[in-house]
TrEMBL record:
Its main location: membrane. One of its GO terms (cellular component) is plasma membrane. It is a multi-pass membrane protein. The chain crosses the membrane at residues 21-44, 56-76, 83-103, 109-127, 139-157, 177-195, 202-219, 251-272, 326-343, 350-370, 382-408, 420-438. Keywords: Cell membrane, Membrane, Transmembrane, Transmembrane helix, Transport. This is Guanine/hypoxanthine permease pbuG. It comes from the Bacteria. One of its GO terms (molecular function) is purine nucleobase transmembrane transporter activity. The gene is pbuG. Belongs to the nucleobase:cation symporter-2 (NCS2) (TC 2.A.40) family. Azg-like subfamily. It is found in: Cell membrane. The lineage of its organism: Bacteria, Bacillati, Bacillota, Bacilli, Bacillales. The keyword Chloroplast does not apply.
Amino acid sequence: MRRYFQFDELGTNYRTEIIAGLTTFLSMAYILFVNPFTLSLGAVKDFPNELRIDQGAVFVATALAAAYGSILMGILARYPIALAPGMGLNAFFAFTVVLHMQIPWQTALAGVFVSGIIFTLLTLTGIREKIIDAIPVELKYAVGAGIGLFITFIGLQNAGIIVDNPATLVGLSNLKNGNTLLAIFGLVVTVILMVRKVNGGVFYGMVITAVVGMIFGLIKVPHQIIGAIPDISPTFGVAIKHLPDIFTLKMLGVVLTFFIVDFFDATGTLLAVANQAGLLKDNKLPRAGKALLVDATAVMVGAIFGTSTTTSYIESSAGVAAGGRSGFSAVVTGILFLLALFFSPLLSVITAPVTAPALIIVGVLMASSVGEINWKKFEVAVPAFFTLITMPLSYSIATGIAVGFLFYPITMLVKGRGREVHPILYVLFFIFLSYFLFLRE
């Protein structure tokens, strides 16, 4: 097993990979509870209950989809990248498709399944991998740095450090809230551990924060260890049964949006995490075809179970920061998602103040790729800057990528370097332009 996962070549071991897998799991375990609440429109009080998707079934579907994607990514592609239903796409599924467009959740699941089929076909034909190889190195670095800024922004929000401000959109909170102080404590502890180069510092920082939170009554001490697994039958297989319902103009736009957003969210995440782990070789992603195939099939499998688009998770960077380098850590994460089905009460201690410091620190690590961008060449600096700044400001990885890819061909053409731009990037220019003009809600 050590030889298969290339432990010696990657300079890792079982202990490090297990800690990394656990760190990734703890960083993304929130999706087990956020996803069911989001997809069922739990925040919308006046939505008819008979039109809501079953929360318990989505909980199980979320865990199973994450387990499938993570374990297969670890074994087949051998990358330390975990998968789960994506944030952002689940909000699009619930609030745009179901609530505003009034499309039944059953039909929306069918749309997710079809977008997965499109992913798989593009992956098997090698088109998706060619698109990734065509992306210039400057934009790849910008994607990584932009995602770093984005998840740091999320971490600061989750910590309650950055809050809404009617005058300036966002602002600094008063920092007196107990959970905010706990997150700040966790951030300080994690920074100290990282500066001291403690192996697994991000993970240990989360553990210390959770323990302190329980001591001061900010996090409830779990009184139950094992809980009953909810029934998945309300959502299992529904996507297949409702495939005939997607053949409408309205659903065509939905499917294309699912496809476009996840295509570049997943691609950006794969590149960013692989770059952080030092796995990119000659600006290319080894075994990219296998990684992309796993990502594509996970979309279909997740839809069959009963959840919105399953995708590669940027929180995998937390595991990489803890030392994860091989696919074994992703396998560990997948197994933990399966165990979470039986020990869900214990996950109550993994609150926003516990995960926020990890996200902030990972953002710091990922933002380091900014230094690799050639800022002296303005035709490169402009699309790179717009890529990394638009992600946090628009709260969307896909939008940041789209904006950067729109500007890159323009600046290169004006500079007289149009021939250096890969033809695929010109095709992407018109695709993104169409996306903004006609498909984006």
